[in-house]
Structure formats: C-alpha cells, structure tokens
Amino acid sequence: MNPARRLTPAQENSLAIAAAVVTANAYYIHPIIALVADHFGVSHARIGLVPALNQLALAVGIFLLLPLGDRYSNRRLTILFASGQTVSLALMTLASGFGAFVLGSTLLGFFTIAPYLLPAYASKRVAPERLGQVTAKLTAGVILGILVARVGAGVIAEHFGWRAVYWLATGLMVAVTLGLPWLMEGGERSTSGRQSYLRLIGSVFPLIGQYREILLAGAIQALNFAQFIALWLGLALYLTAPPMGYGTDTVGYLAGLAAVSIASTPWLGRWSDTVGPRTARTVFAFIQLAGILLLWPLGGTLWGLLIPLFIANLVGPGIDVTGRMTFLALDPSVRTRLTTVYVVLMFIGGGLGSYAGTLAYDGWGWAGTCLLLAGCSITLTGLAWLARRYGS
C-alpha cells in the first residue's frame, strides 16, 4: 500500500463521524414513535410498520447491495447509497400522509449500506498493525450514532416537534453526502475480478450449507435485535401514555443507558477471548434473561425500570460480539459473505421485532410487551445453550 494513500487521524475521525450519521437515521423513530402515530392518526399497531419495513428493507439491501462492495469501488458505492439515504429522509421530512412517510422510511432502510462499506474502505487504507484500532473507531462511531439519535430525537421532539428531528437528520445527511467525495480517496481496485453479480450473490448459499452454525448464530442475534427494538418501541409507547404520562425527552434520557455498553463491550470481548465465544454468549444470555424478567415487576415506576434496562444494555451487545466471533475466526475468504448472512438475519429479526413490539403493546399494553420480550429472551437463551453444545 502506498503510504501517501493511508488515512490520516483526521480522516479516520471524520469517517467515524460519517458512520455515526448514516447509522443514526434508523433510530430516530424509537423515542418519538407515539408522536408520529398521533400526527398521522394511526394506531400503535399500524405505526409499527415504519420501523418494521425499514429493518426488513435494510436486510434486503444488505443482501442485494453489500456484495457489490467486492466488485465496485467502496467509495463510489458509499457516496451513491448515502445520496439515497438523503433523498429518503427528505421524503420522510416532507411527507403529508402516512403512506409517504412509510415509503421514505422503507427506502431509507434499503439504502443504509454505508455503515458496512466504510470499514471495508478503511481496511484498505491503514497499516495492518492499526486495522483493529481503526475498525474499533468506526464501530464506536456506529454505537455513538445510535445513542445520540435516540437521546437527541426524544429531547428535540419534545420541544420542537417530531419533524424537527428529521429536518436535522436530513441536513446532517446532506453535509455527509457532500463531504464524502472529498474525504474518501479514489483509485480502488476490484477484489472479485470479473465475477458476475448473480454468481457473487449465489455464492452465499453454498456457504450456509458448509457452515451451518451461521444460521444458529444469526437466529440468536435476530432474537437479540428483535427484543432490543421491541423493548424500546414498547417503552416509548408505555412511558408517553397514561398513567405514566412522560414526555419523549424522558424516553430519550432513558435511551442514554446504552452508553454503558460502550464501556462494557470491550471488557466482555476480552473475557470472551478467555472462556470462548459460545460459553460467554450463554452466560450473557442468562444475565439478559434475568433483566428482561424484571421488566414486569419493576415496570410500574421510572426508577424501577432503570435496573432491567441497565442489565439488558450491559450484556446485549456482548451477545452480538460473541456471535460474530464464532465465524470471524474462519477462512478470511468467506468471512464477508458469512457476515452478510448474519447481518441479514439480524435485521429480519429487527423488522419482525418492530412490528411484534408495537402490536403486542397495542393489544395488551405493557404486559403484552413484557410477555413478548420474555418469550424472545427464553428462546434466545435456549438457542445459546444449544449452540454451546453444538460447538463444543
């Protein structure tokens, strides 16, 4: 690699900020979902279509578009998909009807590929001994984007209305889209030669049969992500409705508990290296289950909710990390495609969790949300235990 083309510290930090902005777009809806539902006059069950279709479209986009990163310039694709996100956000911001808002959110999900292309781009422009450090920096940007989106959206919407959130988000995406051509240097070369697009996509399926545990790892993370989204959507509806009656800013402040995962995840990763990913994942699953089961008995007060939410945020990302560890140690030539399978399954889970979470709350209130989460967590823990035996 030509040293002149390596990323500078300023470029690394700028890419991390870009990763935060392009990731945040899917998470603004979490604390403000009740306000959006009231504005468009739709039920709590129907508003679940917004995050559900966003996550399912993201899964489709990752499957159909992410493999293009092995054939075309990561720079060109990142700029193209970021532009698609910007247009989609603008549609959501200006939408006068619920259908247009859902369409914008769905297109937004389909084009949210940049967070997965940026690490690939950066990996080609850093010294090998700094690859882990730069990858961690971009990952921190993603986590920060999710955190700021959920906290900031609640606070801004409480004082300025929900559309102000999307006006700001659109402005940030315009700035990122205009800045990416300057920030990202060209001159990349394809790594897959003249392989056709259909062959590139089709090569994923034989790997599933060869590495069957990827389905188990993906199913576990699908449940993990489903309950994460169902929890926060249900919580936003619960806290802003009688008898709780809090504002969306309170929901945003609670979402700030996710900051604990920024500190805990590196430690959980190091411990997983010591005991093995499958054992660690099982331990994390049992701890998370304990937290989920406390949601109902402690859910009558805001202060009581802090305990189960802290527990869930403490170990939830660790389940994802250990799931990735089970296949990232395999042959480097198959890791990207196995990651595609894993991430697609994760976002399918996110889509189903989005709709199931709002549907459960619409039908049975907070009790329905807690019952749904308990079922997901029990199933997740059972699969983690099965995967531990399968991999031993």
TrEMBL record:
One MF term in the entry's GO annotations: transmembrane transporter activity
One Pfam family from the record: MFS_1
Keywords for this protein: Membrane, Transmembrane, Transmembrane helix
Major facilitator superfamily (MFS) profile domain mapped to chain residues: 11-392
Transmembrane segments: 15-37, 49-69, 89-118, 138-158, 164-184, 214-239, 251-268, 280-299, 339-358, 364-387
Annotated CDD domains: MFS_NepI_like
Entry keyword Chaperone: no
Protein known as: MFS transporter
Organism: Qipengyuania flava
